[in-house]
Amino acid sequence: MALKLERVDLLAKNNVQTLTFYEVLNAFWKEVYLTKTIPLERALQFISFIREVIKHMYVLDVRGLEEEIFKVALEFAITPYDASYITLAKRNGLILITEDRKLRTIARRIIESYSLEELLSKEN
User: Fold this and answer.
1) Is the domain of 52 the same as that of 18?
2) Structural domain of 82
3) From 38's CA, which of 4, 14, 29, 65 has a CA 20 to 30 Å away?
4) Judgement on whether residues 49 and 73 belong to the same structural domain of the protein
5) Are residues 16 and 36 in the same domain?
6) Segments in 1-124 forming alpha helices (H)
């Protein structure tokens, strides 16, 4: 979302988890392969740009947290993938920024969580 808003500045020095880059790759794959809404070369340019942006972020690793993630997933009836975001935010004392409304609602039961738009309006 920060990229769509052309607010790359919001990403620098913030946190991201290792799986996020693959989530971005998946989104571009859909755009190129399934919906054919962007050409391959443009997607590759975006991917290269995102790789550079991530170099200026703190990458959080889920390794070693598998049991905790699994327990959170079971407790809140969500996937371990979604639970990994909540677990990392909680463990690191972070606010979870997500555009996934369901995840945000569940996360708010144990941590602070906002959409990017909510966060930006809160800061103003």
Assistant:
1) yes
2) 61-124
3) 14
4) no
5) yes
6) 18-29, 40-54, 66-76, 80-91, 101-107, 116-123
Tens of pLDDT, residue by residue over 31-49, are 999 999 999 999 999 999 8
Cα-only R_g, the chain:
15
DSSP state of 109: T
- In this predicted model, what pLDDT tens digit does every residue of 36-90 receive, in sequence order? 999 999 999 999 988 888 888 899 999 999 999 999 999 999 999 999 999 999 9
The tokens describing 7, both together, are 């607010």
How far lies 26's CA from each of 19, 93, 110, in Å?
Answer: 11, 28, 28
The answer to whether 50 touches 8, Cβ cutoff 8 Å, is no
Q: How far apart are CA 54 and CA 37, in angstroms?
A: 24
Give the integer Cα–Cα distance in Å for 89 and 69. 11
CB within 8 Å of 53: residues ≥ 6 apart: 3, 8, 11, 12
Residues 38/31, Cβ–Cβ less than 8 Å: yes
Would residue 55 count as lying in a domain?
yes
Q: Is residue 36 part of a domain?
A: yes
Tokens of 37: 């809404």
The pTM assigned to this predicted structure is 0.81
